[in-house]
Amino acid sequence: MGSLSIWHWIIVLVVVLLLFGRGKLSELMGDAAKGIKAFKKGMADDEDTAAKPGEPARSLDHQPKVEAEQTKVS
């Protein structure tokens, strides 16, 4: 009574297939696999950038501040 028998699992499987359908389940599994691959790729990219020393910081050229002339409007 405490554990699920094979009949319980079959009924659960049938209900899941009826609710989601065969195509929807394969889409969900494909999307989950793509998400896992993207996550692993992102983690690998983070490790690669952390291992490589970065380029020295470049100084930015800036324009001198220009003061606007004040004119009186009559």
From TrEMBL:
Chain segments carrying region Disordered: 44-74
One GO CC annotation: TAT protein transport complex
Pfam families for this protein: TatA_B_E
Subcellular location: Cell membrane
Domain of life: Bacteria
Coarse class of the protein's main subcellular location: membrane
Keyword check for Metal-binding: no
Listed Basic and acidic residues bias regions: 58-74
GO biological process, one term: protein transport by the Tat complex
Membrane spanning stretches: 6-25
Membrane topology value: Single-pass membrane protein
GO molecular function list: protein transmembrane transporter activity
InterPro entries: TatA/B/E, TatA/E
Keywords linked to the UniProt accession: Cell membrane, Membrane, Protein transport, Translocation, Transmembrane, Transmembrane helix, Transport
Homology family: Belongs to the TatA/E family.
Subunit annotation: The Tat system comprises two distinct complexes: a TatABC complex, containing multiple copies of TatA, TatB and TatC subunits, and a separate TatA complex, containing only TatA subunits. Substrates initially bind to the TatABC complex, which probably triggers association of the separate TatA complex to form the active translocon.
Reported function: Part of the twin-arginine translocation (Tat) system that transports large folded proteins containing a characteristic twin-arginine motif in their signal peptide across membranes. TatA could form the protein-conducting channel of the Tat system.
PANTHER family: SEC-INDEPENDENT PROTEIN TRANSLOCASE PROTEIN TATA
NCBIfam families: PRK00720.1, tatAE
Protein's UniProt name: Sec-independent protein translocase protein TatA
Species assigned in the record: Ancylobacter rudongensis
Lineage: Bacteria, Pseudomonadati, Pseudomonadota, Alphaproteobacteria, Hyphomicrobiales
